[in-house]
Amino acid sequence: MSTNSGETRPVIVQKYGGSSVADAAKISAIARKISDRAETGASLVVVVSAMGDSTDRLIEMAREVSGGRSPEARELDTLLSTGELVASTLMAMAISSAGHPAVSLSGQQAGIRTDTTHGSARIADIDVARLRRELELGRICVVAGFQGLADNEDVTTLGRGGSDTTAVALAAALDAERCEIYTDVDGIYTADPRLVPSARKLAEIGYDEMLEMASLGAKMNPRSIELAAVYDVPILVASTFEDVPGTLIHGGPHMMEVRRAVTAVAVERDVAKITVRAVEDRPGIVSQIFVPLAEAGISVDVIVQNASLEGLTDVTFTVSKADFERTLDLTRQTCAEIAQDVVGNAGLAKVSIVGTGMQNGPGYAATMFDALSSSNVNIEMITTSEIRITCVIASSSVKKAANALHSAFELDAVDV
Ligand code: ASP
Ligand code: MG
Hints:
There is one protein chain. The protein is an alpha/beta fold. It folds into two domains: 11-184, Acetylglutamate kinase-like (Carbamate kinase, 3-Layer(aba) Sandwich), CATH 3.40.1160; 265-408, VC0802-like (2-Layer Sandwich), CATH 3.30.2130. The protein has eleven helices and 18 strands. Strand 7 (147-150) and strand 8 form a beta hairpin. The longest helix has 26 residues, at 73-98. It starts with 10 loop residues before the first strand and ends in an 8-residue tail after the last helix. Residues 1-6 have low confidence and may be disordered. The chain binds aspartic acid and magnesium ion. The site of magnesium ion (MG) has 4 residues, from loops.
């Protein structure tokens, strides 16, 4: 790509999360970095989240004025969109005062059109004409994340953490060189370093693995990873304030590091398990258990049905801890006539190994089970995908299990 004529300068999309823009001093510090970066010749589009926890505060106020009822979805979305407008306008002012021309744009002004699902709208289309015009004028565009405009001209939001999705979608629409996500962690690690002291930062990771990790709670919005994979947008995850190399998420050919069989150990806490004991084993029973849960908006994760014995079986499934009591009550109601009893345990967690290299090789599950048993960790349930093996264990064993797996799969840093 040539860099000497205005129109062909590479576009870079950057995103700064809420903790990075939490106060005026942080906004000014980032603005100076952005302005300096623009001087090196890149066309910059900067996506910002709302400052600090301001989205939570807006939600709180909406509840307070709604007298115990859920706030109206349309009004709530317009309200929440203002958090990102505050951050984007302040950032544009700060960049201008740091020396580079900048303009703030709402989601609507940036051409982001969505469906009408308030609270979790999907991006339908982006008209980048305005952005292109501003970039050609040499301005840095600061776009309010997490929002768009529906066909009925109402403002929508993309769901919590949606600014990542805005950034990746803009990068795809602008055919950007890459999307840079700046945050309070400095990259993606082989395990959570607070849990596993010998965890290492990965220089790169593939989309598929990152998607598994994000779904397991690594600090990225899974939707943004999915989008990046579809449009092949490389994402750099790096620290906002520290100048250290981050992690590149991509699908390119030079994936030495992710060719290792297991790339990372992921942990998800707050898992609860429900067991329906001695339920009749005949067509329709499982749907009788799960349809009411779906209707109540409860998402069920791992499901195991045992082999039937004399026409009776056990069905065990997991939900998030937050949904535990509700799920237990509901399942007891639906199973009152068809099962012996329903029991539950809310003190569980999931520990997973993730890696694309696992799909063609045997023995990974065996190594995992062996490492857990050597550390005296009891496995309650097991589930797998092509590139992931997950065990449900007691949450009190998480630290032990994560460290054992990290060593067993040779992920420990050599110099620790
Ligand atoms: N401000 C929104 C939220 O807190 C969107 C985001 O941060 O990406 O969920
Ligand atoms: Mg936020």
